[in-house]
Amino acid sequence: MSEKKKESVLAGFKAFLMRGNVVDLAVAVVIGAAFTNIVNSVVKGIISPLVGAIGTKSLDGYTSCLKGPCGIDAKGEAIGVNILWGSVLNATLTFLITAAVVYFLMVLPMAKYLARMEQRRRAKEGVQETMEITELVVLKEIRDELVAQRQGGGSGRHGSGY
User: Are 30 and 55 a contacting pair, CB within 8 Å?
Assistant: First the structure.
């Protein structure tokens, strides 16, 4: 009995893994992780130095002393209580750049593509509805003509009387 249960659990797990959306999600996570490294490099390599050129140091170096004395001792460890608002600003910029790139390079083009596909689908449905309505009108005209023929004399012009 336990072997059947193991097989069904493994079969269910395999079915779960083979679903399209699970595989898509895994691919998205891997690509997102690689993309995050690129964005982090851009922020640390370009944006932080530009901000540092305007200010006095890189973005990560901006701090405020909450409880002093603040500084760095001989071992390189922080003394006092520092608020690392430069690091928070750096992380915020990284997030905003990542979000902007994802939106403008992935979400927006996909939304436009899906809107075009929906528009094409609606256009096809509109043509189909027009054809169905036209066929319905023609069938009604044929029915009305047949009714008129029957009421007009039985033997009619075509001789069938049908």
Answer: no
Residue 12: which H helix or E strand, with range?
A: helix 2-18
Distance of CA 114 to the CA centre of its chain: 10
Say if residue 69 is preceded by a cis peptide, omega within 30 of 0: yes
Q: Residues for the chain: how many in total?
A: 162
**Bond into 49 cis (ω within 30):** no
Cα–Cα distances in angstroms (integers) from residue 141 to residues 14, 147, 148, 156, 160, in the given order: 58, 10, 10, 17, 19
User: How far is 76 from 95, CA to CA, in rounded Å?
Assistant: 29
Q: State the Cα–Cα distance between residues 45 and 75, nearest whole angstrom.
A: 26
Is the distance from CB of 97 to CB of 43 less than 8 angstroms? yes
**Closest to 59 (Cα-Cα) out of 36, 32, 29, 90:** 90
Residue by residue, DSSP assigns 18-32 as HSHHHHHHHHHHHHH
- What's the pLDDT score for residue 37? 84
Q: Residue 156's pLDDT is what?
A: 47
Alpha-carbon distance of 159 to 162, in angstroms, equals 8
pLDDT for the residue 59: 74
* pLDDT over 60 at 45, yes or no: yes
Distance CA 18, CA 50 (A): 46
